[in-house]
């Protein structure tokens, strides 16, 4: 073990991230980089082409710096004009981004080629298991490998820091800690109100959902972090220029706009809420670790192939639910992602709330039985060398 630790301490990893969807790409790679440093004692350089988006989830970022250190990670701005740079022992191209040609030549020039991995998008589709860990293209002497996060044995698992679920459990069992956190964001939750977070892309189905919550006998406090869905919220409210701090009440529904918060604060927000609507990949995984019912707005892709990914996940997620609960939550997800009327599906979901709450926690604990993504990446490298 001491010898392995000595070797591990010399490992150098480069992670490349091109910001495509504002926060999902950088959210995943930033979380992964920090965990590799903190829990696996490796040196990590995180190359990012958009430090402005990065600053939203890590306010300490200096968007003008070409190189800086944040939480033990060397953060480098990915320049348009690439300068000569020594290649690392492990190179991760996040989400199939194209590495700079000079860097690829530097990989090939190493005496021992690096392990080059394409960290792909998260999917529950069956074919992922068969492709995970397989060799991909080759550049000169350097072989690239597929590495797929996933929900089933035979994949790379999900990002999950050590002790995360215990910290979540303690927080959710501490009403005072939750109250203090929410008050820190300017949220005064009514005792009888259900708390829902909404982080989503533009969605034509939102108005029908808001109408249904406003007319409900149970009050709802809807928390909306600043983002792309705000335009739809403004249209429903009939106002312009919604910004952080705005609070509007319509019948049983209170809508409150929150500032975009850093990752650890967003975790706590998800833990406080009774239901979380999330988007993309990073927030989708974090909502599952919250152990609460959720709604996923998947990133739209050409020819609607994203809907295949949605159905593949639902096929796994709804196992163990009664047929009425399964139909309710599946209908809600599909309707939301189609931008259709949400009313009937939301009311059906509310009827099965206790069952869906228990199921969300059971799903969380089931996923936690797998190795986490960072540990799986490290183990893949150990096996490779």
TrEMBL record:
It catalyses: dTDP-beta-L-rhamnose + L-arginyl-[protein] = N(omega)-(alpha-L-rhamnosyl)-L-arginyl-[protein] + dTDP + H(+). It comes from Pseudomonas arsenicoxydans. Pfam families: EarP. GO terms for molecular function: protein-arginine rhamnosyltransferase activity; translation elongation factor activity. Belongs to the glycosyltransferase 104 family. The keyword NAD does not apply. The keyword Protein biosynthesis applies. It comes from the Bacteria. Protein-arginine rhamnosyltransferase that catalyzes the transfer of a single rhamnose to elongation factor P (EF-P) on 'Lys-32', a modification required for EF-P-dependent rescue of polyproline stalled ribosomes. Keywords: Elongation factor, Glycosyltransferase, Protein biosynthesis, Transferase. This is Protein-arginine rhamnosyltransferase.
């Amino acid at each position: 073990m001491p010898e392995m630790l000595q070797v591990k301490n010399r490992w150098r990893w480069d992670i490349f991230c091109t910001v495509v969807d504002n926060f999902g790409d950088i959210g995943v790679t930033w979380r992964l980089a920090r965990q590799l440093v903190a829990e696996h004692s490796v040196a990590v350089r995180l190359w990012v082409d958009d430090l402005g988006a990065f600053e939203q989830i890590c306010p300490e970022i200096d968007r003008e710096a070409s190189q800086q250190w944040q939480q033990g990670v060397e953060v480098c701005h990915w320049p348009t004009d690439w300068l000569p740079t020594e290649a690392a022992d492990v190179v991760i191209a996040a989400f199939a981004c194209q590495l700079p040609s000079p860097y690829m030549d530097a990989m090939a020039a190493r005496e021992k080629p690096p392990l080059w991995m394409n960290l792909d998008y998260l999917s529950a589709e069956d074919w992922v298991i068969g492709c995970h860990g397989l060799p991909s293209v080759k550049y000169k002497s350097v072989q690239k490998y597929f590495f797929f996060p996933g929900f089933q044995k035979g994949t790379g698992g999900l990002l999950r820091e050590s002790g995360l679920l215990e910290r979540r459990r303690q927080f959710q069992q501490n009403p005072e800690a939750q109250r203090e956190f929410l008050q820190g964001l300017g949220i005064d939750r009514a005792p009888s109100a259900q708390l829902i977070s909404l982080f989503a892309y533009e969605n034509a189905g939102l108005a029908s959902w808001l109408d249904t919550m406003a007319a409900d006998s149970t009050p709802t406090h809807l928390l909306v972090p600043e983002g792309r869905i705000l335009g739809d919220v403004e249209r429903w409210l009939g106002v312009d220029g919604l910004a952080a701090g705005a609070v509007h009440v319509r019948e049983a529904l209170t809508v409150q706009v929150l500032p975009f918060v850093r990752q650890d604060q967003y975790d706590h927000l998800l833990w406080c809420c009774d239901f979380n609507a999330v988007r993309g990949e990073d927030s989708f995984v974090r909502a599952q670790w919250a152990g609460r019912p959720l709604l996923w707005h998947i990133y739209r892709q050409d020819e609607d192939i994203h809907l295949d990914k949605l159905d593949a996940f639902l096929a796994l997620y709804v196992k163990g639910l009664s047929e009425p609960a399964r139909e309710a939550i599946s209908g809600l997800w599909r309707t939301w992602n189609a931008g259709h009327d949400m009313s009937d599906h939301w009311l059906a979901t509310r009827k099965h709330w206790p069952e869906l709450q228990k199921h969300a926690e059971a799903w969380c604990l089931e996923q936690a039985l797998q190795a986490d993504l960072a540990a799986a990446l490290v183990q893949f490298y150990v096996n490779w060398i």
